[in-house]
Amino acid sequence: MQMIHKLKGMAIAALAVLAVTTGNADAADKLRIGTEGAYPPFNMVDSNGELQGFDVDIAKALCERMGAQCTFVKQDWDGIIPALLAQKFDAIVASMSITDERKQAVDFTDHYYTNKLQFIGKKGMALDVSEAGLKGKTVGAQRATISGEWLEKNRAGADIKLYDTQENAYLDLASGRLDGILGDAFVNLEWLNSDAGKDFEFKSDPVFEGDLIGIAVRKGEDDLRTKLNQAIKDIVADGTYAKINAKYFPFPIY
Question: DSSP H helical segments within 54-201, as ranges?
Answer without folding.
Answer: 54-66, 80-85, 100-103, 146-154, 166-174, 185-192
